[in-house]
UniProtKB/TrEMBL annotation:
The active site is at E245. Belongs to the aldehyde dehydrogenase family. Residues 13-459 form the Aldehyde dehydrogenase domain. PROSITE patterns: ALDEHYDE_DEHYDR_GLU (PS00687). It comes from Streptomyces solicavernae. Pfam families: Aldedh (PF00171). Keywords: Oxidoreductase. The keyword Oxidoreductase applies. InterPro entries: Ald_DH/histidinol_DH, Ald_DH_C, Ald_DH_CS_GLU, Ald_DH_N, Aldehyde_DH_dom. It comes from the Bacteria. This is Aldehyde dehydrogenase family protein. SUPFAM superfamilies: ALDH-like.
Amino acid sequence: MKAHDGMYIGGAWRPAAGQDTIPVVNPVDEQVIAHVPAGTPEDVDAAVGAARAALPGWAATPPAERAERIAALRDALAARKDEIAGTVTAELGSPLPFSQAVHAGLPIAVAGSYAELAASYAFEEKIGNSTVLLEPVGVVGAITPWNYPLHQIVAKVAPALAAGCTVVLKPAEDTPLVAQLFAEAVHEAGVPAGVFNLVTGLGPVAGQALAEHAGVDLVSFTGSTAVGRQIGATAGAAVKPVALELGGKSANVILPSADLAKAVNVGVANVMANSGQTCSAWTRMLVHADRYEEAVELAAAAAAKYGERIGPVVNAKQRDRVRGYIEKGVAEGARVVAGGAGTPYDKGYFITPTVFADVRADMAIAQEEIFGPVLSILPYADEDEALAIANGTVYGLAGAVWAGDEEEAVAFARRMDTGQVDINGGRFNPQAPFGGYKQSGVGRELGPHGLGEYLQTKSLQF
Ligand code: NAP
Ligand code: MG
């Protein structure tokens, strides 16, 4: 695979400050496909310097011109759609059709939405005798994970650029190649030098240096709760805004009046997509006791069909972590009705799609984010119990409700402590605010709410 051996800083590929590199591994066959430079605090410092230098010019660029550059970025990404999909398949292991539709398709849609928003957003408003200016927050430090590697980058960089901010990105060490492709697209789009900068590297080295850098005005992080907590604490000590997107343990609530087969089949597909590596996945299915066994059989059959179609998880650590949870579920007394902790192939980081029945709400597999193709099915006796189970984790990122009519589903959704709920299989909307209640995070991404995260207000009184 093609890889740059430098960092994209100040509008050019520059040699890295250090000599160390990071191997990029294909999770399907465990082969090393490329190496990228391991960034040091020196690289981060150079990138933040370039972003600071570019900030006054970009912040003063009329929004319509910023919109033109973001539209050009969308077009550059669209022109590279196949290369993006092939690269994500190689470094993440997801099946090519999924890479094309989601890993390449979604970021193009999101970039397009910010090209439109940058042109139409009201960066000024009137309140009584005041004019309120919505100004860019400044230099953004963006730290992204590997699960939707390009989407997570675009969901931070596109609104930041629309707002007039400049950016330093530290992508996940497992998926740096698509981040380098993104930097090429930014360059082709004619975004001025220093407005976007890329430093590849390890989280505790390059990521931490970026999160702690005094020249960064806002840190936007997506990833694990443990790292998010640390980044939030660092930002708090420096009195800096922070956006955290930390995952979840979302509930798929199937009310007694629902179309059970549809709700179960869509629910299983939701969990197995991207090999279960989706922070908003509905990893807990809640079914009324009267229809529980029927749902379990349907889910087991649906999961078995995914066995051949699913990709691996991203790396050996994740595979072992997911297997550990499956073993824990068995040890805690849950019943495996599909899959299990066994190895489906002798190579690659594969996990067999797994479904647990007889799951109690206090089990680890019902409380903790597993981040693999593992579904837990829990019974409930009445709506109040279903609600208590749905809301009974530290997370609150997403969820689903199924019922005979929309009103009934919406009434239940209003009582859920979570950031987004799909009603009877409602489609994902790339402009709806995405983010969490409780420990799922702080702040929102996507659409106008996502743009708002990168703005601060200045009130002028007349
Ligand atoms: P992670 O370590 O939190 O990684 C997210 C990003 O933060 C990566 O770019 C990572 O760099 C970086 N990072 C790591 N340590 C850092 C530090 N001390 N300071 C600054 N940045 C740092 O997550 P992970 O280890 O890849 O995955 C672990 C678990 O996190 C998963 O099993 C899952 O539960 C959760 N997760 C959630 C999401 C989500 O969308 N909410 C996404 C991915 C993972 P490296 O790539 O070098 O580690
Ligand atoms: Mg990590």
